[in-house]
Structures are given as C-alpha cells and as structure tokens.
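Dear V.,

Thank you for sending over the compound details. I've combined the ligand you provided, zinc ion, with the protein sequence from our construct and run the structure prediction for the complex. I'm sharing the raw inputs here so there's no ambiguity about protonation or stereochemistry in the SMILES, which I know was a concern on your side last time.
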Amino acid sequence: MHDLAITGGMVHDGLGSPRRRANVAIEGDRVVAVGDDVGRARRTIEADERFVAPGFVDAHSHSDALPLMGQPQPFELLQGVTTEVVGNCGFSVAPLDDTSAAYVAEAWGDLLPGVAVAPGSFADYLDHASTTPDRRTTSGHSSTTGRFVSPPTARGVSSRRVRWE
Ligand SMILES: [Zn+2]
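Below is the predicted structure of the protein with zinc ion bound, written out as structure tokens.
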C-alpha cells in the first residue's frame, strides 16, 4: 500500500511527454507509479480538474531573506515552487559586515518584515536559514565584494555605493 495517491489529475510528468489524465502513487518522498491503476494508498487526494506536476524550480527568486523569517513562509510551496536559487543576481544577505548590514537593512528593510539584518558570514546565514522549499544558495557578488548599488526606491533611483573598509 502506497503512502499517497493523487487521483484523476491531468499529469505533466516534467519529461516533455504530452499531458494525460492519470493517477500518481507516492511512497515517502518518491513517485513510485503513474498510470490508470496505481494501487491503493493510505491517503488519497482527488485532483479532478487540476494539474499534477513535479515541483517547479524558480531559478531567480530574490527570496534570500525569506528563510530568515520567524514563521514558515509556505507561499512558494503553495505556488508549486519546490526548489529555488537565490543570490545569483549579485545580491544576497550574506556575508555582511557592519556597513553592509546597515545598508541592506535601510534599503531592503521594508521588504523584509521580521528579519533582523545583521552582519555575519555565509555560514551563519546557512545555519539560520530554513530549508523549505529546497534552496540553492549562492553568495551574491555585491555581498562578497561589499559593493552594493542601491535599488530604485520610492525616493528615486539612487546610485549610492557602500564599500567595505
Ligand atoms: Zn535578480
């Protein structure tokens, strides 16, 4: 008996195959069967009129600070994103020295409710970051080199730079 069956959905297998109506059986964290008859399961989700697909990879999410929020932030999972890549466009919330942390808190603080931006190493960040969804984290070059360029703000576009001492 499987752990979970998702029945009646329109399955997109993520391999380029045409979509098809099928049932999906899951054991633990693995899909073990896809087809018309996948056997019995302890729990069933009826997915009629819905799509069933592997989790999406968001390769450019800017969600670097979300894993530092005190409460779980399930909205990525609710949108089907199971893996995301952060830090890849140059900005990350680690590593930060005192000056860079102050800059990030000022420039991005309104977008980071409940996150206390603090100086720290990349290892510190990873130690405190939640792991849901699966996250591939890189250290942004701005953070690594200490060269931040201000984002556009309500006060206008700024070209201010902060350099590490
Ligand atoms: Zn970006």
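A first observation: Strands lie at 2-11, 20-27, 30-35, 41-46, 51-52, 56-58, 81-86, 134-137, 148-149, 161-162.

Warm regards,
I. M.
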